[in-house]
Amino acid sequence: VGARLISHAGSLTNLAKYPASTVQILGAEKALFRALKTRGNTPKYGLIFHSTFIGRAAAKNKGRISRYLANKCTIASRIDCFSEVPTSVFGDKLREQVEERLAFYETGEPPRKNLEVMKEAMVEASQVVAEVRKKQEKKEKKKKKREKRRLEALAAAAEDMENAVLETEENETEPKKKKKKKKQEAEQELEAASEPEENGLEEEEEEEPLPKKKRKVGAETVQGDKKKKKKKAKEVED
């Protein structure tokens, strides 16, 4: 019945804006306008007639219980529409009130006052809201933890990808370095092979003037011997 009323009104907010008299005859607009034209009796109920509470009531009490039920439906729709945390406490209390009103029509037992019922509902609703908020906070914490884990996993995956890219780049650059090293080694070998030839030539060039020095030394010794002979000859003459 609630779903039918909401669909006929268009939305829950529209239903919450309607007064109880409109909710009572919602769905019986044709009968209402016909009664207004003909100045006949207006309808007592519309879509709300499908409720079991009206079916359980006696024929003479159907209009009274439909008016009472429409009143409770408007209160419930406003609570559901404008409450921050949705709870079923008020709906259960309003249902109990309708049951008590039915019993009052049948047996004559006086029902509880609306003020007393709403005070009880407020106390119970505050406890339920506290529990719901705790559950919501737990869910939010779990969501935050999941998001942190997901971000950490993404960061780790990104680091792994970067490391893999760096490794591939290093592997690509290593053969080039090896080629360069091989080229350098080949150049060093060529230089080492050319150095002994140059050294041999230099040694030969250095060894060639040695006999000249020996010749010079030999000429000096010959001249010294001649001088000595001359001195001896002079001494003998003297």
From TrEMBL:
PROSITE patterns: NOP. GO terms for molecular function: snoRNA binding. Residues 159-172, 187-208 have a biased composition (Acidic residues). GO terms for cellular component: box C/D methylation guide snoRNP complex; small-subunit processome. Belongs to the NOP5/NOP56 family. Involved in the early to middle stages of 60S ribosomal subunit biogenesis. Required for the biogenesis of box C/D snoRNAs such U3, U8 and U14 snoRNAs. Part of the small subunit (SSU) processome, first precursor of the small eukaryotic ribosomal subunit. During the assembly of the SSU processome in the nucleolus, many ribosome biogenesis factors, an RNA chaperone and ribosomal proteins associate with the nascent pre-rRNA and work in concert to generate RNA folding, modifications, rearrangements and cleavage as well as targeted degradation of pre-ribosomal RNA by the RNA exosome. This is Nucleolar protein 56. It comes from Nothocercus julius. The gene is Nop56.
